[in-house]
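Run log, item B.
One chain of 198 residues. Sequence copied directly from the ordering sheet:
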Amino acid sequence: MKKKIAILGSTGSIGKCLLKIIEKDLKTFDVILLTANKNYRELFNQAKKFKVKNLIISDYESYCKAKFINKNKNFQIYNNFNKFSEIFKTKVDYSMSAIVGLAGLEPTINIIKYSKTIAIANKESIICGWNLIKKKINKYNVRFIPADSEHFSIWSSINSKKKIIDKIYLTASGGPFYKRKFSELENIQISQALKHPT
C-alpha cells in the first residue's frame, strides 16, 4: 500500500526537494495534498506531475486566478487550511510542514490531527508555537521529526543512544551583530536586533 503524503509549502525549496525524492519512488508514495501561497502555476505543474487532486492556495488573489484557470475541475482548490477534514478521509502517513515564517504555524497545528508523522522544516513555528504543537502531537499520538538542518541536528543528537552530550551551543552565522566584538553587545537595543537581514 502506498504511503500517503501531504506537503505544506510544496513550491518552496524544501517542498521541491521532497518531491524530487518522491519522484524517485512513485510506486511507494501517493501525494494527497500540495499547498502554495501565490505560485499557483508551479503548484499546477506539480499537481499534474504527481497526480494530486487537492490543492490549497492561501493568497486570495492567486486562488481566484487558479480557480479561473481550473474551469475543467482538474483539481479541487481551496483557499484556506480549514478544509483538511474535507481533504483527508483517513490520516496521511507523512506531512511535511515547509511554509516559510510564522504563516506556517496555524496550518502545521491544523494538519497534526490528520497525520501519523509530521516533519517540520519551519523553525519559526517551533520557536513561536512549540507548546501548541507539542500539545497536539501528544493528543493525536503523532510522530514528530524536525526537518531543518539546525533543529534536526539538535534533535538527533539529543535522541542518540549514546548519551555523550553535555551542552549544546547555538551560534549565529549572520544577523545584525555578525563580526561585532563581544564588548559591543552589552548595550544592544531592540531596534538594532530587529534589523536582521533577510
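Observations after the first pass:
- The domain at 3-158 is CATH 3.40.50.720 (Rossmann fold).
- The CA atoms of residues 85 and 149 lie 31 Å apart.
Flagged for discussion on Thursday.
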